[in-house]
Amino acid sequence: MFTGIIESLGQVESLQSVGGDVRLRIQTDLDMSDVHLGDSIATNGICLTVIEWGKNWYAADVSRESLNRTTLGQWKVGQPVNVEKAMLPTTRFGGHIVSGHVDAVGEITLVREDARSIYYEVTAPAEIAKYLAEKGSVTVDGISLTINHLRGNILSLNLIPHTAERTNISTWKTGSKVNLEVDVLARYIERLLLGDKAAEQNPKSEISMSFLAENGFLK
Fold it and tell me: Exposure of 127 by Cβ count < 10 A (0-12 exposed, 13-18 middle, 19+ buried)?
């Protein structure tokens, strides 16, 4: 598990095709002294398993599932990426519960200055809109952020200068693709509300935007 508080701005060092999958190597200034084989490191919000590592780098294999569901298939050598090691029981919990399991790819549709912060609008795929809530949490490229406002499946975010300095948001432009992970609690609540239908092959969720509004989840 992760918190969405970025620890390092890493860089894609190499991408190698291996048997239809990808082996990825990331350069980072993280302290790697406590990293072990099989540890998890979130890279732009994707939970990756460490298979090799050194003083200032780590490598991971990326499955077809991850390539299909995230932005990783479009990464290039030299690209900056947000890096966070898995949280410890003693970690100060400054963000929210992040699993590193990307739900969908969104698109940056508006960027503008807003006093000293930067205002972004992100269009999320319609199928995950029901999991988003105004003033709720969302993970964007691994960063724990608060949704300021929602208009259907368009969410607005304000990022302060500190976040801009510590993450890859300087690369976000109109049209940029970003990894999105909804609050894990929303996914489990939906599953619980299915009740006995959860055992069906294709259960139909009763959660809709009107349902969320009627029950106080949306303003």
Answer: exposed
Give the global pTM.
0.88
- Judgement on whether residues 78 and 123 belong to the same structural domain of the protein: no
Q: 34: domain range?
A: 8-85
Express each pLDDT in 166-193 by its tens digit: 999 999 999 999 999 999 888 888 778 8
**What CATH number is associated with residue 69?**
2.40.30.20
Residue 90 is predicted with a pLDDT of: 81
Q: What string of DSSP letters covers 37-84?
A: TT-EEEETTEEEEEEEEETTEEEEEE-HHHHHHSSGGG--TT-EEEEE
Instruction: Tell me the per-residue pLDDT of 98-118, one tens digit each, with 9 for 90 and over.
Output: 999 999 999 999 999 999 999
